[in-house]
Fold this sequence. Notes:
With 431 residues, this protein is mainly beta. The protein is 8% helix and 39% strand. The protein has a 6-stranded antiparallel beta sheet.
Amino acid sequence: xxxxxxxxxxxxxxxxxxxxxxxPLLGLATAGTAHADSTAVASIAKAxxxxxxxxxxxxxxxxxxxxxxxxxxxxxxxxxPMTGIDSRAVSFYxxxxxxxxxxxxxxxxxxxxxxxxxxxxxxxxxHVNLVVEVSADGTQxxxxxxxxxxxVQARSWFNWRxxxxxxxxxxxxxxxxxxxxxxxxxxAPTQSTYRxxxxxxxxxxxxxxxxxxxxxxxxxxxxxxxxxxxxSISVIALGDPGDQPITGDWDGTxxxxxxxxxxxxxxxxxxxxxxxxSTSVIALGDAGDQPIIGDWEGTGRAxxxxxxxxxxxxxxxxxxxxxxxxxxxxxxxxxQPVIGHWDGGARDLPGIFRRSSSxxxxxxxxxxxxxxxxxAQYGNPGDLPVIGDWSGAGRSSYGIYRPGNxxxxxxxxxxGAADTSFIYGNGGTxx
Length: 431
C-alpha cells in the first residue's frame, strides 16, 4: 500500500557514507569457488549421512550435537587451529570473528550459523551445519549437518537469503571458513584518503522528499550546508575536527536533523542535534566502526547503528529504541554502507556501495525485506554515494557526488541515467 503523505514525509532518507578516509571498493566477489582443500570438508560430511550421534564425533551433549559434528568434520579435513570452537553453534561465529574467516557469501566447506531471532550479537545461535555445494550465482546451497532429525542429514538446494534453514532454525546469518585448508588470504584494500566536502541528504523541510547538502570542515569548524528546494542555503555548525556527519529524524518531527559521529579514545559517540539546539549522546560500537542511521522499526524516528568489517564480513549492527541490537551481514570486504527505504515499506534497510576497481561503473546493492538483493550500476570510480527519495515516491533511490566537479547526479529509479544534475559545494580530492 502506498505511504500516506504524512508517513512519507517522516521517512527522511539518510546516507551512511561519512568517513573522511575511505577505502577503494573491490569488484564483485564470485560465489561458489571452493577453497583449495575445502572440498575435503564436503566429501567427509557427505560420507557421514544417515549416522547418528556417537562418541565418534565427541557428542558430550546427545541432544545438541550439531556443532560437535561440524567441528569433527573440519578436524578430519585437516583444519587447524580450531581454538574456541566448542559444543555451541555460536562458537563457530565467534571463531570466524577472531580468526578472520567470517564472511557473508557461501563457499564449499564453510560452517553456516543459523538463529531464529535474526541476530548473533546476543551470543546465541540455534544451529550450525556445513556447505557442501554452492550454486553458480551463490544464492543456493546444499548442506550436511549433524543433529538434524537426530542424525546426519544432507539437505538439497535452498535459497539461503530468502528461506529459513530446512531444519527450522531460522535464516543463515553467517558463513565461517575453516583455517589451515589452503585458503588464500583476502588482500587488504589499499587505503585512499578523501579531502573535501562530504555529501549528505535529508528532508530538511519536511516536504516528503529528500534534498542534499554537504558537510565541510573549514578551519577546524564543522558546517552542515543544507540546500533547500527554493535554492536557499542554511548552515548548521556542530562538532569537532575529525567528526563524521550523520543525518536523521531523531525526534519524529517529520524533517531531518543533523548530528556527528565521534571516536574519542576508542569510544564511539553519536551526538544528535535537536531542533532547539540541544544535543543528546548515544554510545555504541568499537574503534574502526562506521556510523549508520535508519528507521529500523518503522516508527518515523531514526535510530543509530554501526557498520563493522570483521575478518572480511560486513556487519550492520542496528540499535533499537529499547537498546537491543540486531545484526545483518551484507557485502564484501572494502564495501561502504548505505541505508535506504528501498521497498516503500515501514523500515529502512541496509545496502552497500562498491566502487569499481576496473574503471567501470560503481555498484549499489540494496537488501530488501524478503532477503533478496538488487544491484544497480551507477557513477564512476571516485564518486561518493548519496541516497534519498528525490521525487517523493515513498522509496529511496540512488545518486552520486562527483568531487572533481562538485556535481550531484540523482536518479529516481534503479537504472538509467541521472534525472537531475547540479553543482553544489566545493568538491574534493582523493590522494
